[in-house]
Amino acid sequence: MNKKIKTDAVDHLFEAILTLKTPEECYTFFEDVCTVNELLSLSQRYEVAKMLREGRTYLEIAEKTGASTATISRVNRSLNYGNDGYDMVFKRLEEEKREG
């Protein structure tokens, strides 16, 4: 965990996020918390991570998501050398899909 972001304020934000129960609630909350561009950037990075894990090429990812190669590279670095947060979420979503 990055100690630079570990603050009481970030803890409070994450506690608030954990109370959200539906995608509609997420839209309501995140539209208030983020700008449209911030939210679109976050979702773009997530899509890039999914596509990288699927073995897609940078060119395919750039064409499908509109992400720059710099963004794709940063996400790839997070996947390979980060805290495994993306993989944790991907694994849980896959488990839910199998159970559901």
Automatic annotation (TrEMBL):
Residue runs in coiled coils: none
- Organism superkingdom: Bacteria
Tell me which Gene3D superfamilies the record gives: TrpR-like (1.10.1270.10)
Q: Give the signal peptide as a residue range, or say none if absent.
A: none
| Record-level Gene Ontology MF annotations | DNA-binding transcription factor activity; sequence-specific DNA binding
NCBIfam families xrefs: yecD_yerC
Mind telling me what this protein is named? Answer: TrpR like protein, YerC/YecD
Q: Native species of this protein?
A: Lacrimispora saccharolytica (strain ATCC 35040 / DSM 2544 / NRCC 2533 / WM1) (Clostridium saccharolyticum)
